[in-house]
Amino acid sequence: MFKQILLPLDFEHQELYPQVVESALQLCHPQGQIHLLYVNSARIHHAAAPLMSHELIGSMDKTMEQQLADFMARHIPVAHQGQIWIKHGVVYDSILARARKHGADLIVMPASRPGAGTYLLGSNASRVVRHADCAVLVIR
């Protein structure tokens, strides 16, 4: 059983969310918490950076925070509800940093089937698996 579970969500793989949440709940200690993380990687792409004002980024963050809060309220029992974080940067680096900083003992994350691009560059999930200091469960 795990006491600090991190769920990095990107709302791209929503079809996997029921499995992600069910897995996290089954593995959660009776006094454990499930935390949600969204990583906004919009500003790391240099071509788009000048087009993104601080106001636009702030608005995106508020929208995402509300979506995560709604998700938490609907899917995570109150006794297991943890924190919600919105971070900016490279997705896998941000997931690993948040897991380390908060002392997560499990990361449960969705992942798509690998495509040609992921064979060359690697997916976020595969990088998290290789570099995490804690257990990682990848849901497909």
From TrEMBL:
Species, as recorded = Zobellella iuensis
| Family, per entry | Belongs to the universal stress protein A family.
Under InterPro entries, the record lists:
Rossmann-like_a/b/a_fold, Universal_stress_UspA, UspA
Q: Where is the signal peptide?
A: none
Q: Which residues form the UspA domain?
A: 1-140
Superkingdom of this entry's organism?
Bacteria
Name the record gives this protein: Universal stress protein
Q: Which Pfam families match?
A: Usp (PF00582)
